[in-house]
From TrEMBL:
UniProt entry keywords in alphabetical sequence: Glycoprotein, Secreted, Signal
Family: Belongs to the peptidase M14 family.
Major site of localization recorded for this protein: secreted
Originating species: Denticeps clupeoides
The keyword Disulfide bond appears for this protein: no
PANTHER family the record matches: INACTIVE CARBOXYPEPTIDASE-LIKE PROTEIN X2, PROTEASE M14 CARBOXYPEPTIDASE
The protein's name in its UniProt record: F5/8 type C domain-containing protein
Domain F5/8 type C: 48-130, 148-179
Domain Peptidase M14: 203-526
Primary gene name: CPXM2
GO cellular component: extracellular region
């Protein structure tokens, strides 16, 4: 950890909220009439716990360690009795949201085999999952925290539910709190234990602590870091970002801009902590002379925005890592899903293509934002407006937004072309590039492409190399990824970095090890493809010139200084440059397999008409339209 960072909370206390501390905490169950499973009161407290969760939710506990007396069907077996596990869209026989007993009597039980002597200190039980919606803004009624008056040392722990709804059935999801007892001969645990050698601040940070950590990083690396904000949240909290570059604060000609952001869903907090760890790591490694990090910092302008939705995060943080459920804090303070709150430019482009308006009336890139969306009465989060202004201001080339609750990388398009179709593969013109970018992250993640790992909920993404087209998973109009691709030059992907949206603090070192290499490798992909500067014969850079690649019906544009970056896979490409008032120019550019974009510069000449206009304007006269002039001179 960076030495100036201090005041780490003592490990025995597990944050559930901020009211008071009790240990043990008795909570009595109470039936809730609207559910078909167990449901409980939840008190908001800071509870002193000796032991963290064992990992039913994070999948550290394998399926074969879970047993039950009976099950209603396979999809409701013991392997589905994990805290916060989600059912499939159709709740079929294989993927349902909890364990349900096959009989309703007091003899039913759910059992966890820890595979070694363990000090058990408590159990968290939760009702059976149902498809959540925005109306379920306070899902705490589904939880019961059961702390033991005295810890119990054993290998097995069995939960024997004694209350359920008269018209319902015995169904629940479980997390167990326990500490493995010392056992140097336990090969199974040593073989599966993941440790880190990085000395970083592994904890969940409040908003104030996040700001302080950013300041500490900036103080230790003032020459390569800069703190700035892109706007404010609904509650007035600033959306802070950290820039990492050898010349922070300025765009360097020919240097690509990269961004990571996290926390658009406030309860998906792992991405937020990963970005805070990443900025610490890069500062430390740069100071220690790590050549890989130095090259990345010197050749790239990197922006890290760890908390897009700080208001939502505050709600999740207040409750804690195991009691927030699946949706508390997901939305902005005014109830909007920030990640899917962008204008639907897909429909605008596809309708224009159907009417053959491209490129005559509308371009295949930089699709304009509709006027209704920009009005004050539009249902747009203030955080979304801040993000759009940020995206338009900086010429980003590549970006990733970190999500939670799954292990997969998704790429555009996120919306299917056919209306009413919930799942349909909908590729972009740059589909091959997007698939490579997604695979670059997934393949270097410790678990995403592991075919032997257990699926998080219902989908086995490892079969697809840990990647999927967004629309083929679930269609969503107005996504951040689609907007970034259609409105700016930036290729944006979503990384779902862990099954658990809000992992316990003790899990953060392992999650960092799972994602560290992927975070670095994906950043390095910003240097894949071609780059260059478009100039006129006087050497001046030409802004807003259109860069077209033959065979790919999606163009990009040059930045203010005339520089551009075009992500491409290895191969030969015919590239054409067009700019208003200039003659088009084409050349063949070759992209190799090594990291490092190929230089492909252009010098283009003015058209005769633009030169005439320039000369006439220089002397205060307007060009003469010759055909109209001849008509005027004809005798009547």
């Amino acid at each position: 950890m960076i030495p100036a960072q201090t005041s780490t909370p003592p490990p025995p206390c597990w944050r559930l909220s901020r009211t008071r501390a009790l240990c043990p905490l008795p909570i009595q169950p109470r039936a809730h009439p609207s559910q078909d499973s167990l449901s409980f009161h939840q008190m908001t407290l800071i509870v002193c716990l000796e032991c963290p969760p064992m990992g039913l939710e994070t999948l550290k506990i394998d399926d074969f360690q879970l047993h039950a007396s009976t099950m209603r069907r396979y999809g409701l077996g013991a392997h589905r009795g994990r805290l916060n596990i989600q059912a499939g869209l159709y709740e079929d026989d294989f993927y349902d949201g909890g364990w349900c007993a096959g009989r309703n009597d007091p003899l039913q039980w759910f059992e966890v085999d820890a595979r070694r002597l363990t000090k058990f200190t408590g159990v968290i039980t939760q009702g059976r999952s149902s498809l959540w919606s925005k109306q379920l803004m306070h899902p705490l009624l589904h939880f019961l925290l059961n702390l033991f008056t005295q810890p119990v040392v054993a290998r097995y722990i069995r939960v024997n539910p004694r209350s359920w709804y008269n018209s319902g059935s015995i169904c629940m999801r479980v997390e167990v709190l326990g500490c493995p007892m010392p056992d140097p001969n336990n090969y199974y645990r040593r073989r599966n234990e993941v440790t880190t050698t990085d000395n970083l601040d592994f904890k969940h940070h409040s908003y104030k602590e996040m700001r302080q950590l950013m300041k500490v990083v900036n103080e230790f690396c003032p020459n390569i870091t800069r703190i700035y904000n892109i706007g404010k949240s609904y509650n007035g909290q600033k959306l802070y970002a950290v820039e990492i570059s050898d010349n922070p604060g300025e765009h360097e000609l020919g240097e690509p801009e990269f961004r990571y952001m996290a926390g658009s869903h406030g309860n998906e907090v792992l991405g937020r902590e990963l970005l805070l760890l990443l900025m610490q790591f890069m500062c430390q490694e740069y100071l220690s002379g790590n050549p890989r990090i130095r090259h990345l910092v010197d050749e790239t302008r990197i922006h890290l925005l760890p908390s897009v939705n700080p208001d939502g995060y505050d709600k999740a943080f207040e409750v804690g890592s195991e009691l927030g459920g699946w949706s508390l804090g997901r939305w902005s303070q005014d109830g909007l899903d920030i990640h899917h709150n962008f204008p639907d430019l897909n429909t605008i482009l596809w309708e224009a293509e159907a009417r053959k308006w491209v490129p005559r009336k509308i371009f295949n890139h930089h699709v304009p934002i509709p006027e209704w969306y920009q009005s004050k009465n539009a249902t747009v989060a203030v955080e979304t407006r801040a993000l759009i202004a940020w995206m338009e201001k900086i010429p980003f080339v590549l970006g990733g937004n970190l999500q939670g609750g799954e292990l997969v990388v998704t790429f555009p398009y996120d919306r299917s072309r056919l209306v009413g179709v919930t799942r349909q593969v909908t590729p972009t013109p740059d589909d091959h590039v997007f698939r490579w970018l997604a695979f670059s992250y997934a393949s270097t993640h410790r678990l995403m492409t592991d075919a032997s790992r257990r699926v998080c909920h219902t989908e086995d993404f490892a079969k697809e190399d840990g990647t999927i087209n967004g629309a083929s998973w679930h269609t969503a109009p107005g996504s951040m990824n689609d907007f970034s691709y259609l409105h700016t030059n930036c290729f944006e992907l979503s990384m779902y970095v862990g099954c658990d949206k809000f992992p316990h603090e003790s899990e953060l070192p392992e999650e960092w090890e799972n994602n560290r290499e992927s975070l670095l490798v994906f950043m390095e992909q910003v240097h894949r493809g071609i780059k260059g500067v478009v100039r006129d014969f006087q050497g001046r850079g030409i802004a807003n010139a259109i860069i077209s690649v033959e065979g790919i019906s999606h163009d990009i544009r040059t930045a203010a200084d005339g520089d551009y970056w075009r992500l491409l896979n290895p191969g030969e490409y015919r590239v054409t440059v067009r700019a208003e008032g200039y003659n088009p120019s084409s050349k063949v550019c070759e992209v190799g397999y090594e990291i490092g974009a190929t230089h492909c510069n252009f010098v283009i000449s003015r058209t005769n008409m633009s030169r005439i206009k320039e000369i006439m304007e220089k002397f205060g006269k307007q060009p003469i339209n010759m055909p109209n002039r001849r008509l005027q001179m004809r005798p009547i």
